[in-house]
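Quick one:
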Amino acid sequence: MPEQEVPGQIDLSGDGGVLKTMIQEGNGDEKPHDGCTVSLHYTGTLVDGTVFDSSVERNEPFEFELGKGRVIKGFEMFIPTMRKGEKSVLTCAPEYGYGPAGSPPKIPANSTLRFELELLGWKPEDLSPKSDGGIIRYIITPTTKKGKTPNEGGLVEAHLIGKFEDRIFDERDVSFVIGEVSDDEIITGVQTALQKFGKDETSRLVIKPEYAFGVKGHKEWNIPSNATVEYTCTLKNFEKEVKAWKLNEEESIEQAKIYKEKGTKFLKDEKFTLAIKMYEKSNSFLSNCSNDESKILKAAVFLNIALCYSKLEDHFEVKKACNTVLEIDSKNVKALYRRGTSCLKSGETETALADFNKVLEIEPQNKAAMNQVTLCKRVVKESHEKEKKLYANMFTKFANVDNEKEIKDRNKDDVLTSCGEWNMDDEARNEASKAFEEVDQNVVMI
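Output:
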């Protein structure tokens, strides 16, 4: 254990193992937190005053990522209590330092250590999925329950304060399911960041346009195109979404039905991207199911995914979703029809015709498929007629070129003969021949 506490010391560990003595107050309210890369100066001494290491003497600040276990426990506990520019003394017992092993040859076993620290600054944590600086977090009030955070599909209760150029445009208490609200309601940056929050945490987020209001901006809140905004968020409470692998088959199917219904609601509201999200979530609960009910449900889910992608005019994904349905049920009329329609729109007319003909094999009186077959045949016929005209024109053009070349060749022979080609020397003969070759090239190019 360290020496007896002195007035002004703060016990950070609760057992006297990590003590803090302030030398100089820092600036602002924000403090570094797990995930930040901190920069500081330190001088480390043993209890007898012997200096064992100093970044000050090297004139080289020490940098490390906080919360990753790359420094002693005393540092991990102490640094998050500091503000920028602050100078403090850390006194830590062996169990928060190098323990019974020490760090030979300079730090003996079971040594109590003192560090004079100056926090120079830190790079905040980047929460963006691409690590492109799109969502930057500054923790104001850290959580007291580390390791427990919301997940996508989980219900959260939070307080939001949105700012643009120091103007508050959005302040409200919200309750929503992460991933189930549109960007117009809760921007992507906030939904993404909250999945890293602990209960009762308050953080300031700097969010770039890609994760905020994008090129559209927000007319009602007077947010211009491509604006970077700030949100101060407090996570009041949350419930994590249940994990699919924890459920039995019956429970999984029930959850899949719930998300299918959510997807259908978004589909009816023409929120196609959100609908797809819900249908994909529904399918995730079916991954460990193999009974007939789950197969029928999966086919219905992917039929709706295909419908959503057709509304978004993403024909590749439409065909992909329909293929999944047809693997389950090769005679699914809706899948064949939707795949055929998508093929027709993307220029694969003969493939589309094959799909519509399969529909008619199954349902001979299907009028929609009959109409599409008629349309496909007309498109194929028109395409063939265009090809015939194109090839006819090409052959005529090539024939004309050949005729012109033949005439030029004859003229070339006549001129060479009249010029007494056989009486020319080699150099003159080559120049004359070269001149006619250039003329022939021009004819072909025309």
